[in-house]
Design goal:
The protein is an alpha/beta fold and 349 residues long. It has helices at 11-22, 38-45, 57-62, 71-77, 89-101, 130-133, 144-160, 196-203, 237-244, 259-268, 305-316, 322-333, 335-347; strands at 3-7, 27-32, 50-52, 69-70, 80-83, 104-107, 123-124, 138-141, 164-174, 189-190, 209-216, 222-230, 250-253, 279-282, 287-289, 292-299. α1 (11-22) packs across α11 and α11 crosses α12. The structure holds NADP nicotinamide-adenine-dinucleotide phosphate.
Length: 349
């Protein structure tokens, strides 16, 4: 049986651990913790083996945490490591552990695709380039925003191709996640040089895309405002609704008041970790004006990349074809069921 280790147990790592542990065809060795805090307790209570740096044993044991071994040993045992570390540590981990031990690794969107600290030669988006990731040793899973944009842009590119003149996207991002300890500052801040534009072009190279990213004082979800300029007349709203109705991980919702209402619904409905793991197009914000189509959708930043990482395990480790991997992902994450529940609730469908 193939073995997977999760290096990092924060917002993303803890969700990955829940998902991977549900798949009985893979063995989850355990997770890595670096700080002896409440999350260590949480991991142990959830039944995960906890591995820590060798030189931190004492500190963890002083806090009465039952530790299963060292991170170094867990990596040696693994066939694939999912690196879920805070931005920049993935590069250090690749050099220190994965390369010397010849281990496959999946990195998260906070790592670099280009330059000195590049960790992989591709960014994955399961809607676009899953097949290229099969059997690869190192792949970056696109960030939540890049994943969401790919889910919307790719179907448009496939259907409207050369009629698409340009895409302009404003990414309105939450300040911190709900379970983040970080303080939310009362300010709207902008990103001088957003990485999302180049990241998306890595897997949809011909797209004429311009991105601005703003951070707002919220903990709920992101909202992307996408303006698509066409050569000639844009498609009608009905055509757009039809285009997205059967897209995996894309729901079309009506009369949602905002990202807060949607996140609270996901929690109240008992969705795991309070995630929908998809993007939600807001029906009333689809506008066709002159040669422009506007689409606004909320992007579940915490949940979005978890099925994507799971798909990567299917491709990089198990060499599963996309259709099979998608079916497995749907069994683990119940994306289609959640989509139906949300559409019934917010659309009366
Ligand atoms: N949060 C999101 O919504 C989101 C969405 C998509 C992608 N991402 C990306 O996912 C990655 C992780 O983000 P996150 O939000 O999960 O961060 P996070 O909550 O801050 O968690 C980071 C984790 O990294 C661990 N860590 C510290 N040093 C490490 C090392 N040297 N090697 C491995 N792990 C180490 C930390 O351990 P201790 O706590 O034990 O110190 C912590 O568990 C980033 O690249 C981020 O850009 C995040």
């Amino acid at each position: 049986m193939f073995k997977v280790f999760i290096n990092g147990y924060g917002i993303i790592g803890s969700r990955l651990a829940t998902a991977v542990s549900k798949d009985k065809s893979i063995k989850l060795i355990g997770i890595a913790k670096y700080s002896p805090d409440g999350k260590t307790e949480d991991a142990i209570k959830s039944g995960f083996n906890v591995f820590v740096p060798k030189d931190s044993y004492k500190e963890f044991r002083k806090n009465n945490f039952d530790i299963s071994g060292s991170i170094e040993d867990a990596i040696l045992e693994a066939d694939l490591v999912i690196d879920a570390s805070s931005e920049g540590n993935g590069y250090k981990n690749k050099k220190k552990y994965y390369l010397p031990a010849k281990k496959k690794a999946i990195f998260q969107g906070g790592e670099d695709r280009y330059g000195e600290k590049s960790v992989a030669d591709m960014i994955h988006n399961s809607r676009v380039n899953y097949e290229q990731a099969r059997k690869k040793d190192f792949v970056i899973q696109g960030s939540c925003n890049v994943t969401g944009m790919g889910k919307i842009i790719q179907p448009l590119v496939e259907k409207y191709g050369k009629s698409l003149k340009r895409f302009d996207v404003n990414l309105i991002r939450r300040w911190a996640d709900l379970e983040d300890k970080k303080e939310v500052k009362d300010s709207i801040e902008w990103d001088k040089n957003p990485h999302h534009q180049e990241d998306l072009k890595d897997f949809i190279p011909k797209v004429n895309l311009f991105v601005d990213a703003l951070k707002v004082p919220s903990r709920m979800m992101h909202l992307h405002q996408m303006t698509i300029r066409f050569r000639g007349t844009p498609p009608s709203k009905d055509e757009i609704l039809e285009l997205f109705q059967n897209e995996f991980g894309v729901a079309v919702l009506k009369n949602v008041k905002g990202t807060g209402e949607l996140r609270k619904q996901a929690i109240e409905l008992g969705f795991e970790h309070g995630d929908t793991s998809m993007v939600h197009i807001h029906d009333e914000l689809i506008r066709v004006q002159d040669d422009i189509l506007k689409i606004s959708y909320s992007d579940d930043q915490t949940g979005m990349v978890i099925p994507e990482n799971y798909m990567l395990i299917q491709g990089m480790l198990l060499d599963k074809p996309r259709e099979e991997a998608l079916k497995k992902a749907d069994r683990i994450f119940r994306i289609n069921r959640k989509k139906k529940i949300l559409e019934r609730k917010f659309r009366g469908k």
